[in-house]
Amino acid sequence: PSMRTPTAMIVGLVLCPCGLLLTLTGTLAPNWRQVSLIPSQPIDLTLEQGIWDLCRERQSSHDRLCGQADELGYFEQVPVQVARGLMPTSLVVTLLGLVVAALGVRCWQKEPRHLLAGVAGLVLLLSGLLSLLPASWYTHELQALPAPAGSTLGVGYSLVLSYLGSCMEILGGLALAFSFHRCCKER
């Protein structure tokens, strides 16, 4: 008996929701960049900069304060503004793609709809690119974005998660896009 749901579709339907969760966390969590070893500040103080919030944390006491004032104009920077626009857009496009994918893969039908699954793949591929772009640009500008002079700058976990999520969505989207091949073979 033939397998009803092609492997590529299953791969796409596993990777894309995982990508969505990672991208969502990356978008919301305020840690795209970590600023540490700030001169004239306690040695264990870390500033965490996201695209919506700025937090400061003391490593020794784990005292964490968010909603810090943006004195250096960090939020006005173009890579941060672009991320604020594209990350939520990517999340919406991912949700849209997953709805279309669910309709295309439809496990309760005898045969999946290859054309619909293929379209979903392209939508999810686009959503992955929409979040990969700001993550890459931010990484490229990481050292250039305003920070207290003499401090050490590092990549935050939100940025890493955004990258991973984008890549999962791109791979999942490509896997679903393979459905076009089946669609053309049947014609």
Describe the structure.
This protein has a five-stranded antiparallel beta sheet with strand order 4-3-2-1-5. It has helices at 7-28, 78-105, 114-141, 157-177, 179-186, and strands at 33-36, 45-49, 54-58, 64-66, 152-155. It has 187 residues and is α+β, with helices and mostly antiparallel strands. Strand 2 and strand 3 form a beta hairpin. The radius of gyration is 20 Å and the shape is elongated. The model has no long low-confidence stretch (mean pLDDT 92). It has a single domain (7-186), classed as Up-down Bundle (Butyryl-CoA Dehydrogenase, subunit A, domain 3), CATH 1.20.140.150. Helix 1 packs antiparallel against helix 2 and helix 1 (7-28) packs antiparallel against helix 4.
Q: Return Rg in Å.
A: 20 Å
Average predicted confidence as pLDDT: 92
Beta-strand proportion = 5-15%
Looking at how many chains there are and whether they match, the oligomeric state comes to single chain
As a percent range, the share of helical residues equals 55-70%
Keywords: Cell junction, Cell membrane, Membrane, Tight junction, Transmembrane, Transmembrane helix
Organism: Podilymbus podiceps
Pfam families: PMP22_Claudin
InterPro entries: Claudin (IPR006187), PMP22/EMP/MP20/Claudin (IPR004031)
Concise account of the structure shown:
With 187 residues, the protein is of the alpha+beta class.
Topology record:
Elements: H1 7-28, E1 33-36, E2 45-49, E3 54-58, E4 64-66, H2 78-105, H3 114-141, E5 152-155, H4 157-177, H5 179-186
Antiparallel strand pairs: 1-2, 1-5, 2-3, 3-4
Helix pairs in contact: 1-2, 1-3, 1-4, 2-3, 3-4, 3-5
